[in-house]
Amino acid sequence: MGADGPGAVVCIRMAVGLVFLSEGIQKFLYPDKLGPGRFDKIGIPAAMFFANLDGLVEIVCGTLIVIGLLTRLAAIPLLIDIILAILLTKLRELRPGGFQGVQGFWGMAHDARTDFAMLCGLIFLLWIGPGRWSIDAIIIRGARARSLTADVAAEQVS
């Protein structure tokens, strides 16, 4: 699993990572609206625990994606996070009466646009990797260079 994708992948990493990072921070800045208060309002049990866990995961994994470190690994908990967000907050809008006054598919599609974009961005990063402008790529290039140097040294000794 290399990190030699196009440098332009950094744009996807920034978009995805910064959205999750900022959302995670806001769960702690605005606990009633975006953290435990919101989790409680939508019926998530142990709202304080899960909101704080969610905020922490979004901050840590969002930061890892922004800097391009352990990118594919960081995408996995965020995929779980965004799928749960869609299931718990967006699909209920399809029910009669909707949620927060929005009704039907188009209301849900409008409200879920960022969620769907994050889902696609995370799948892209899991599939393509962090790109060549990432810490992952620097680590891999360094490991390849050390391996090549070791191979050359071993051949010279033989």
Helical content stands at: over 70%
The ordered string of helix (H) and strand (E) elements is HHHHHHHH
Rounded mean pLDDT is: 89
Class by helix and strand content? mainly alpha
**Low-confidence segments, ≥5 residues, pLDDT <50?**
none
What's the overall geometry?
elongated
Number of E strands = 0
Largest sheet: none
Q: What Rg is obtained from the alpha carbons, in whole angstroms?
A: 20 Å
Structure description:
With 158 residues, the protein is mostly helical. It has helices spanning 9-29, 31-34, 36-41, 47-67, 71-90, 104-111, 113-128, 135-157. The protein is elongated.
Outline the secondary-structure elements.
Blueprint: H1 9-29, H2 31-34, H3 36-41, H4 47-67, H5 71-90, H6 104-111, H7 113-128, H8 135-157
Helix pairs in contact: 1-4, 1-7, 4-5, 5-7
